[in-house]
Amino acid sequence: MKEAVALLEHVVTVRKKVLAEDHPSRLASQHALAIAYGANGQVKEAVALLEHVVAVRKKILAEDHPDRLASQHALAGAYRANGQVKEAVALLEHVVAVRKKVLAEDHPSRLASQHALAGAYRANGQVKEAVALLEHVVAVRKKVLAEDHPDRLASQHALAGAYRANG
After folding, report:
1. By the 8 A CB rule, do 95 and 69 touch?
2. Predicted confidence pLDDT, tens digits, the chain (167 residues)
3. pTM more than 0.90
4. How far apart are CA 19 and CA 27, in angstroms?
């Protein structure tokens, strides 16, 4: 991971010199670096960089643009990892609401955001909301994914944990 961070830092540095702040390639590299920061335990760096990417993408991309939503989803995950659970919930509620308008019920990105929101709800003490959302995600994934698909199993595992937390 350290090598990935170093390489992406280099790419971002070069692209900052030669590309405009809102250039898609520059933003994509910054997004990738932020994800690598998070995976490397550099959560504060991930939050700061994703906040920048989200701010720029908010200015130039439509509310329902996949890249904008992907960065907001990633920022919510970084917020959660940084202990900013309320911010994560608010951002994921927005992402889920937008994706509900533009994506089919069984679209993987929509389901991933709903799954993430359920986790943020649980972390925020909103266990009933987490259970309801995970029951929906599990039901949809049962229809469209094989019994042994990792996403289906992850949602079922999360739902079992939410049931336990709910008493």
Report:
1. yes
2. 999 999 999 999 999 999 999 999 999 999 999 999 999 999 999 999 999 999 999 999 999 999 999 999 999 999 999 999 999 999 999 999 999 999 999 999 999 999 999 999 999 999 999 999 999 999 999 999 999 999 999 999 999 999 999 88
3. yes
4. 10
